[in-house]
Specification:
Strand 2, helix 8 (255-273) and strand 3 (276-284) form a beta-alpha-beta unit. The chain folds into 2 domains: 3-203, Up-down Bundle (Alpha-lytic protease prodomain-like), CATH 1.20.1510; 209-284, Alpha-Beta Plaits. It has a 3-stranded mixed sheet, with helices on one face. The chain has helices at residues 3-32, 35-61, 76-104, 113-140, 143-168, 175-203, 209-222, 255-273; strands at 230-236, 241-250, 276-284. It is elongated. The protein is 68% helix and 9% strand. It is built from 8 helices and 3 strands. It is mostly helical. The two termini are 26 Å apart.
Length: 296
């Protein structure tokens, strides 16, 4: 599976679906005179814009390393996430502001049958689209796709708010305002979560305990003597990962012997985990020597 190809496909499906929904919603909003539906149509169009951001980020992040960027361009994905998070925050603020204004003015929502049909279609399509993009995001470990999927879900939630307003407006004039405020709080929380994850990756994070355990286990399969792998550091460039750590070898081991061991470990980790490892050798206090193996 090509990571870039899957990202392009998810982005293209999102843009086509959202643009189609935008036209349908805008038409329904103009026909029924519904301000909420018309506003929701433009919200859907913002999803198309975020999907275009994803496509551009996939293109930029898939560029090969060059002299100025020797570790690749994968972190463009995190930058795209921050852009989408900002767009989500704007949408959430707009939801909250509109909810407060409607509650203050005791404004109820009046819709017709056409609005109900269009809203139900939008809800189903947007949630299906969110599930699809979430699936691709999990397969490719693409954080910008995950953020885009949440953007699709915000549109599904906004359609749910409108649908609830349609069904309950005759009895509870304030239901649209209340649900809108609840959705806006959920969106702010989601925005904070995805932005925090992107910032954490940009600033640098420690390797997961599972990765450390897997590496120690893999080294144990290569050599019977415990080399005490420790002091792990990872540099995640999304499409390229660098790992450094220390091992301990016998004091009387020659440089050539230790080099063969280190070279074998680095080659195995590259093959097994797709990680470029740099291993530092420290002297072991005891003289328990490991038999050098190249494992190439």
């Amino acid at each position: 599976m090509s990571r870039a190809r899957e990202g392009y496909k998810a982005g293209a499906v999102s843009v086509i679906s959202n643009t189609t929904l935008f036209i349908i919603k805008l038409w329904a909003g103009l026909v029924t005179g519904s301000v909420a539906l018309t506003a929701d149509a433009w919200h859907t169009l913002s999803d198309s814009i975020s999907s275009i951001v994803v496509i551009v980020s996939v293109r930029l992040s898939s560029k090969k390393p060059d002299n100025r960027h020797p570790f690749g361009h994968g972190r463009w994905e995190q930058i795209a996430v921050l852009i989408i998070a900002f767009m989500l925050a704007v949408v959430a603020f707009d939801f909250l502001r509109e909810s407060v204004v409607r509650f203050r003015d005791r404004e109820s929502v009046i819709f017709g049958t056409l609005a109900i049909v269009v809203t139900v279609i939008s809800l189903l399509v947007k949630e299906a689209l969110a599930q699809y993009v979430f699936m691709i995001a999990r397969k490719t470990d693409n954080l910008s796709l995950k953020a885009d999927a949440w953007h699709h879900r915000t549109d599904a939630l906004s359609s749910l708010v409108i649908l609830a307003g349609i069904l309950l407006a005759n009895r509870l004039w304030w239901i649209d305002s209340l649900l809108g405020a609840i959705v806006s709080v959920m969106l702010f929380y989601t925005t904070w979560q995805i932005a925090r994850e992107a910032v954490t990756k940009l600033l640098g994070e420690k390797p997961s305990q599972k990765l450390i355990d897997d590496i120690i286990s893999e080294i144990g399969k290569m050599h019977e003597v415990d080399m005490d792998p420790h002091h792990f550091h990872i540099h995640n460039y999304v499409t390229h990962r660098e790992l450094t750590f220390h091992i301990r070898l016998a004091r009387d081991m020659t440089i050539e012997e230790s080099h063969l061991i280190v070279q074998g470990i680095e080659s195995r980790l590259k093959e097994r985990f797709g990680i470029v490892a740099t291993v530092r050798v420290e002297p072991l206090k005891s003289y328990n020597r490991a038999k050098p193996q190249s494992n190439l």
